[in-house]
Design a protein that fits this description.
- This protein is α+β, with helices and mostly antiparallel strands.
- The protein has 3 domains: about 200 residues, no CATH class; about 70 residues, Helix Hairpins; about 160 residues, Histidine kinase-like ATPase, C-terminal domain (Heat Shock Protein 90, 2-Layer Sandwich).
- About 70% of the residues lie in helices and about 10% in strands.
- It has 10 helices and 9 strands.
- It is rod-shaped and about 170 Å long.
């Protein structure tokens, strides 16, 4: 693993060395051409053509480096960059005086640059030197041919290049050994540091685990405490609702019972005394008994329905029916009461709306909404209308009463809640709650639109088809 990491570091240094050598070559070749121009070297144009062409190739390589296309393999790429420089210098030598040209010294510079820039070992450096040496020697010998006219010059050049290559190779071996020793020491330090980090991390993890357990237990205790407080608050609210319900129910039930008892006592006393009661008076007393009996039945039904809703046993029995017919029946029943209270009840219905609903429960919803409208409408006209869409039907009841403040518009749909003071309004506060639950049991909903001083509009939206099953429950 350490060897692989060491090789990765060497490859990265080789890539950077490649980029540096490309940048130097792309800069130095034009610089030497400019120097020849100022010194008025006789072969300026030939040398400049070679140098500028080589520099152009290095510029292309540099842009390839910026794009990440080059170098892909560090060592072969570096050999290619060195070979390009050595071939360019050798070509300049061939274009001038061959092996007698003084430009062969540039090959020495290439060898020295390889030794200074690339982090190679002796084998890699030796192969690079052999490649550069072969490029120069082969080209010169092929051009000059044998025997050489001035063998001493060629031998001196080759000896100089060989000495430079040997020195570079030895230097590469020395630096490679140094690098490996340094990396080994660094790896030991890294291992020791990793061990210490792991040890510290283990201790820290144990401490964090302990702290997390303490925090978790604290959180559990807080949740338990919160649950207890919520349960206590809910119990207090339930107790308050129960007491309020008992108070309201006793008052509301007592009123019709008192009236019924009074009428019954009057009839009983008249019968004891043998007095005849006028037919119109008898009719009025029986009418009063009937109204109070209906009111008492309505209160009892509301109590039973609320209990069924809370226990999840309020059943609906949807069947194919005609909505206009069942709503008109309720309107006809309430019209007499509206007329007695001096309220104009205005109805606007389409011809027919067919669907699948529990007719009795829908009539209960309409009755509750109209009763509320008469109760809170300040004797102003009450409007009821029906509408149908592709998948829903709507029952809309609008009064012109004082309206309901926005903060109270959600509250009034809960149990025992009313929009006005219980001192001025009768009822158990269950009507709207039952309406909402019946609408939801049909897969629908009830909405309220109201503003202070502008009356209230209740809209019951029901799907045209309710899944028929005998035990549908809220």
């Amino acid at each position: 693993m350490q060897e692989a990491r060491f090789q990765q570091l060497l490859d990265e240094q080789s890539r950077r060395g490649c980029q540096l050598l490309i940048l130097l070559a792309a800069t130095l070749f034009p610089a030497f051409a400019l120097l020849d121009y100022f010194t008025q070297y006789p072969d300026f144009f030939v040398l400049s053509a070679i140098r500028l062409s080589t520099s152009f190739l290095y510029v292309l390589l540099y842009f390839a480096c910026l794009r990440g296309w080059f170098p892909r393999k560090p060592y072969p790429s570096a050999l290619f960059v060195l070979a390009l420089a050595a071939a360019s210098i050798t070509l300049m030598c061939l274009m001038l005086r061959g092996y007698q040209s003084r430009y062969y010294a540039g090959v020495n510079l290439v060898i020295l640059a390889a030794g200074l820039i690339f982090p190679w070992n002796a084998r890699q450096m030796g192969l690079a030197v052999l490649m550069i040496f072969s490029i120069y020697a082969t080209a010169v010998l092929v051009q000059a041919g044998l025997p050489l006219a001035s063998p001493d010059t060629f031998i001196n050049n080759i000896s100089f290049l060989a000495a430079t290559g040997i020195i570079s190779t030895a230097s590469a071996h020395f630096h490679d050994s140094q690098r490996r020793e340094s990396f080994a020491r660094y790896a030991e330090i890294e291992n020791a540091r990793d061990f210490l980090r792991a040890d510290l991390a283990s201790g820290q993890n144990s401490l964090e685990t302990l702290l997390n357990e303490i925090a978790q237990r604290k959180s559990d205790l807080e949740e338990a405490s919160l649950s207890l407080r919520q349960a206590r608050d809910q119990a207090q609210v339930a107790l308050s609702h129960r007491e309020e319900f008992i108070s309201i129910a006793s008052h509301e039930l007592k009123t019709p019972l008192t009236s019924m008892r009074l009428q019954t006592q009057l009839l009983y006393k008249s019968m004891q005394k043998g007095q005849e009661i006028a037919p119109d008076k008898t009719e009025k007393m029986l009418e009063t008994l009937d109204k109070q009996t209906a009111r008492l039945a309505h209160l009892v039904d509301g109590i039973f329905d609320t209990s069924a809703i809370r226990s999840g046993k309020l059943e609906i029995q949807p069947a194919r029916t005609e909505l206009v017919e069942i709503v008109r029946e309720v309107v006809d029943q309430i019209k007499n009461r509206a007329r007695e209270e001096g309220v104009e009840l205005r109805a606007k219905f389409p011809q027919t709306i067919h669907g699948s609903w529990d007719a009795m429960r829908i009539q209960q919803v309409v009755s509750n909404l109209l009763t509320n409208a008469l109760k809170y409408g300040h004797h102003k006209p009450v409007d009821i209308s029906l509408a149908a869409g592709p998948s829903h039907a709507e029952i809309r009841v609008r009064d012109q009463g004082p309206g309901i403040a926005r903060p109270d518009q959600e509250r009034i749909f809960e149990r025992f809640e009313r929009g006005h003071s219980a001192q001025h309004v009768t009822g158990l506060g269950l009507g709207l709650y039952i309406c909402r639950e019946i609408a939801r049991a049909h897969g629908g909903e009830i909405f309220l639109e109201s503003s202070i001083g502008e009356g209230s509009t209740f809209t019951v939206r029901l799907p045209l088809e309710v899944r028929a099953h005998s035990d549908a429950r809220i």
